[in-house]
Structure formats: structure tokens, C-alpha cells
Amino acid sequence: MVDRAAPQQKPLTGRVPPEAVRRRAFPALAPDLLERYAAIGDLTPTASDAMDNLGLAGVVPASVLAPQLPGRLVGQAVTVRNAERPDTVAAAVREGKSRMGEHEAYNLAEPGNVVVIEGLAGVSNLGGQSAMVAHRAGCAGAIVDGGFRDPDTSRGLGFPIWSRGVTPVTGKWRLQTVEINGRVRIAGVSVDAGDLVLADQAGVAFIPYAQAQAVLAEMERIQDGDRRQQRDIAAGIDLRTLAATKYK
């Protein structure tokens, strides 16, 4: 069985209007399925090949979303969609009220979930305090289509972030969170809350929830072929035979 029942709904924090929260919970993928994903070497390259074979798009290279820590992620997405504030920075400072609401995603997250933020470039969509709250909530890491700041804090926590870059510029007066656990667009890829996120030093792969089993099966088939080929290379099989052998 691929999934389990959705966890019981949690009360909201009020960081965003209730109508901005599209889903309070989503079905969890089975732990054994996630463990099988985590056991695959060359995680996102293998996912990219599998998704190509299945006619799926959803892979973003590290040249676009760069990893800030060595490591990898396998977890379901809790999503945040940010937009530019309509007022000026000066007006926002005078008002003195932040409209950032990513903490609501952390509140709704289950341990092992990955925070996925559609944000603004050059502006922090996730800072050090935010990383601390996400880490405390059990989130495995974050994917930020935009900027983040306070990298020493996230590194000290061992909280991995993939992003478009680091910035000193706060988002507090420049952006507003308009949706939690709805559909976001990350580097051109549509991602829904509950979709599977894979990330490593090569990049990020977003796998639709409904396709998680099929993609895993194809990734394991590809990995088996890679291992057979590696054994033949190590055994000294001649290049003509290697070139003529279909491994995957």
C-alpha cells in the first residue's frame, strides 16, 4: 500500500488567514517506500532518468537551486507561496507588521516533511529564526525558489536548504505569504502539498504524489542496470561487449 490516512488536523496559528490554508493535512507515503527511495544512489540523476522514461517533468539542476549543505532529502512537501507586498518598504516599516506566514507550514508539517517555498529572488523567504522553528518542527530541510538568509544558523542546525542564493535583505517588509499547502511553482515545476521531494548535490526532483510508486519502480530498475554495468566495468569486460550490452 502506497499511503496511509492523513494525520489529524492541527489547529492553525493565525499567521495567515484561514482561507489561505488550502490543506491542513495530506496522506503520508508509506515509510518503506520512502526508505527505498533513500537507499538509491545518485538520487536525483536516477530520478531524472526515471521521470524521462515515464514522461514526467519535475527536475531542477543545482545550478538553479543550489544546495547550501552536503546531503540529501527524501520527504513530502509542505508548501508556501509568497508574493511581493503592494506597499513600499518605508510604509511597511511604519506599519510594523510582518506578513510572512511560513510558520504556518511548519505548524502543519509532520516530521520528515520538506518545506517548499515559492518566493522572491534577492529577498529572504526563510531566515535563521524560521530555520530554527522548521527544524524544531521536524522538517527535514527546505527548497526555496528565492533567497534565504542567516546561513550560519541553518548550517549549525544541520538544516539543509536548496535555494537561488543567500541574501542579507529581509523579506519582512517586502513579501507576504498568500497561500499555505496549495500549488506552488518552483523553477517552472508545479508542486502540490504532499508531493515527494528528492534533493542532493546534483539538484532537486519533485515527484507527483500519485506517481511515487511508479517512479520508484523505474528508479530501482535503472539502479539495477547501473550496478550490473559497474560490475562488468570493474571485471574488465572489453569495451565492445560493454557497448553492445543493454543494461537498462
Can you walk me through this structure?
- The protein is α/β, with parallel strands linked by helices.
- It has one domain (18-43, 56-209): Glucose Oxidase, domain 1 (3-Layer(bba) Sandwich).
- The protein is 31% helix and 23% strand.
- It has 8 helices and 11 strands.
- It has helices at 31-38, 43-54, 89-95, 103-108, 128-136, 151-157, 212-234, 239-244, and strands at residues 59-61, 66-67, 73-84, 114-118, 141-148, 161-166, 175-180, 184-186, 189-191, 196-200, 203-207.
- The strands form 2 sheets. Strands 1, 2, 3, 4, 5, 6, 7, 10 and 11 form a 9-stranded mixed sheet that branches. Strands 8-9 form a two-stranded antiparallel sheet.
- Helix 2 (43-54) crosses helix 7 (212-234) and helix 5 (128-136) packs parallel to helix 6.
- The longest helix has 23 residues, at 212-234.
- The protein is elongated.
- It starts with 30 loop residues before the first helix and ends with a helix.
